[in-house]
């Protein structure tokens, strides 16, 4: 067999017309490595549909000794209105709390009957206990769970009046104690929310206001120090060169703010 070359010749990627940015900040303090916060932001591009739907998943898993608890749903609760809290404890991290904030952004409303069982303006939380050797396959486990939800919808609704996709591809709201916890939000248009890890041994819990302040401070400090230390020279003094250089430098040095 004679092979002249082997490479990707073309890619038919999906066009989602949305830029998703993650800003990550570490906060020192306490006896277990400190706390951290991440801000997740979705910004529509100019050619995007203003009603574009986006679903976002966050999951926490636990290997080894410890505990993770997302609480329990009240009778008749269809989702969480407001912030989601996951409390935990491990030998290495001590006690801690993960908060997924309610955030900002609109949510889809279809008017389909399925919306009464699972309103998308609420945050969905699903907890479970799975063997540790499959925790690394959490993404596949989520897809399998959603497939089960789809099978139920197929039996419940007529094929001529199916639920809209944003309603279909969702998890069951069932928070509890376990070693795997999945949080799902569904947005329409631009959005923003925070994920905050607060160590129990830190003096205070981190807030969204703390995250906003540190993102601004780290960005400003890094930008000014970069210019002072590296002193860009012509022809590399244009803004596009400076931004590219900062991105390269930031990836190498891993400063307090991490964008992705």
UniProtKB/TrEMBL annotation:
InterPro entries: Glyco_hydro_63N, Glyco_hydro_63N_sf, Glycoside_hydrolase_63. Residues 15-169 form the Glycosyl hydrolase family 63 N-terminal domain. Gene3D superfamilies: Glycosyl hydrolase family 63, N-terminal domain (2.70.98.110). GO terms for cellular component: endoplasmic reticulum membrane. It catalyses: N(4)-(alpha-D-Glc-(1->2)-alpha-D-Glc-(1->3)-alpha-D-Glc-(1->3)-alpha-D-Man-(1->2)-alpha-D-Man-(1->2)-alpha-D-Man-(1->3)-[alpha-D-Man-(1->2)-alpha-D-Man-(1->3)-[alpha-D-Man-(1->2)-alpha-D-Man-(1->6)]-alpha-D-Man-(1->6)]-beta-D-Man-(1->4)-beta-D-GlcNAc-(1->4)-beta-D-GlcNAc)-L-asparaginyl-[protein] + H2O = N(4)-(alpha-D-Glc-(1->3)-alpha-D-Glc-(1->3)-alpha-D-Man-(1->2)-alpha-D-Man-(1->2)-alpha-D-Man-(1->3)-[alpha-D-Man-(1->2)-alpha-D-Man-(1->3)-[alpha-D-Man-(1->2)-alpha-D-Man-(1->6)]-alpha-D-Man-(1->6)]-beta-D-Man-(1->4)-beta-D-GlcNAc-(1->4)-beta-D-GlcNAc)-L-asparaginyl-[protein] + beta-D-glucose. Signal peptide: none annotated. Keywords: Endoplasmic reticulum, Glycoprotein, Glycosidase, Hydrolase. One of its GO terms (biological process) is oligosaccharide metabolic process. It is a single-pass type II membrane protein. GO terms for molecular function: Glc3Man9GlcNAc2 oligosaccharide glucosidase activity. It is found in: Endoplasmic reticulum membrane. Pathway: Glycan metabolism; N-glycan degradation. Its EC number is 3.2.1.106. Belongs to the glycosyl hydrolase 63 family. PANTHER family: MANNOSYL-OLIGOSACCHARIDE GLUCOSIDASE. Cleaves the distal alpha 1,2-linked glucose residue from the Glc(3)Man(9)GlcNAc(2) oligosaccharide precursor. This is Mannosyl-oligosaccharide glucosidase.
């Amino acid at each position: 067999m004679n092979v002249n070359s082997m490479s990707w010749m073309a890619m038919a990627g999906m066009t989602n017309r949305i830029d998703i940015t993650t800003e990550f900040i570490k906060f020192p303090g306490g006896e277990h490595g400190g706390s951290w916060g991440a801000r997740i932001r979705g910004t529509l591009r100019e050619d995007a549909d203003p009603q574009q739907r986006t679903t976002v998943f966050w999951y926490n898993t636990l290997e080894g000794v410890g505990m993770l608890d997302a609480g329990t749903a009240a009778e008749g609760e269809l989702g969480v209105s407001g912030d989601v809290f996951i409390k935990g404890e491990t030998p290495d991290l001590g006690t801690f709390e993960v908060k997924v904030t309610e955030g900002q952004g609109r949510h889809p409303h279809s008017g389909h009957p399925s919306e009464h069982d699972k309103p998308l303006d609420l945050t969905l939380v699903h907890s479970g206990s799975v063997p540790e050797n499959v925790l690394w396959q959490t993404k596949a486990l989520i897809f399998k769970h959603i497939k089960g939800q789809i099978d139920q919808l197929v039996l419940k609704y007529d094929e001529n009046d199916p639920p809209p996709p944003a309603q279909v591809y969702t998890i069951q709201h069932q928070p509890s104690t376990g070693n795997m916890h999945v949080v799902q939000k569904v947005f329409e248009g631009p959005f923003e929310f925070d994920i905050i890890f607060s160590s129990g041994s830190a003096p205070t819990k981190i807030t969204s206001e703390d995250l906003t302040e540190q993102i601004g401070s780290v960005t400003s400090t890094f930008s000014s120090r970069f210019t002072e230390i590296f002193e860009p020279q012509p022809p590399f003094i244009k803004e596009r060169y400076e931004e590219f250089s900062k991105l390269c430098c930031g990836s190498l040095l891993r400063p307090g703010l991490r964008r992705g």
